[in-house]
Amino acid sequence: MSERGHVYGALDLGTNNCRLLLARPSRRGFRVVDAFSRIIRLGEGVSQTGRLSDAAMRRTIEALKICASKLARNDVERARCVATEACRIASNGHDFLRQVEDEVGLKIEVLDRETEASLAVSGCASLIDYRADYVLVFDIGGGSSELIWLDLSRGAREGGQDGVKRPGVKPGIRAWTSLPVGVVTLAERFGGHHVTPESFEDMVRYVTELVHPFEALHGFRELSRDRNVHLLGTSGTVTTVAGIHLGLKRYDRARVDGCWLSIDQIQSVTYALLARSYDERVAEPCIGHERADLVLAGCAILEAILRQWPAERLRVADRGLREGILATLMSEDGVYRAGRRRRRQRSG
After folding, report:
1. Residues of the chain whose pLDDT is less than 50?
2. Rounded to an integer, what distance in angstroms lies between the CA atom of residue 281 and that of residue 304?
3. Full-prediction pTM beyond 0.85?
């Protein structure tokens, strides 16, 4: 074991991706020592059948074997392995996780939606602009999408005598919800290979109907009017949109994570993608074959959010649930130093 600290692990088994992050505490939060990411589409077909398919479970187990070997090879001191929407809603989800424990040796817990939302906020908190009054954090997943409104308006009173809000003032979660829709489930419902302007609007309308009760209950559209508000997106959809906007020939996390996009820039990318064929989306280096049938479903969810809560800018986070898990584990052990933005050299 290195004298630089124990290695911690976070595994996120989602509807579409299996991701692992291993890190050691550092002066700026933590330093990544290893990572893994693979599209496994565990939730493929679950919205129709209610069950995880045999093929999806086999793909997932192969990916989890790689994760288990990385955890063992790096002598991980503490790890938290979680599953999200696919295993939450599939009738055989818990049986599958018992199979994983027997075959792979990993004990994976099914995360409830509130904890998932809270950890996602913790994972990208360093990207919050603390001059804002309200921040909408959202995570567009494969099977569900989390929306979390943060209230920073009290920071002006608590930040100091000069009235400037401080990063040390913890943002309060004003309200949150988990929408039962993600890129996989939306693409399965409306089609993802051949998307027309009409079917895209159908997707946006469908998501808007899911968002409406949350807005009707809390009234954030009116609450945030004439206030300093920004969006913070942590998902493959927003990182893909950012990569395309930046014209990247190959995805570059260092350029994407933390960048700001105007709403006009986001919508310009969305409608340019809508005008492309499936094969043209495959050829886009920030999309590729594995995401070409899902990217417009993600853009439709994003568009519904933008229409519901108009804002001038969005910050892109290539970080989220796994980083939140790591920060929580390290904080529990008293080895996590928060308050300074951390930078990573590698990511899944």
Report:
1. 1-3, 156-169, 340-348
2. 21
3. yes
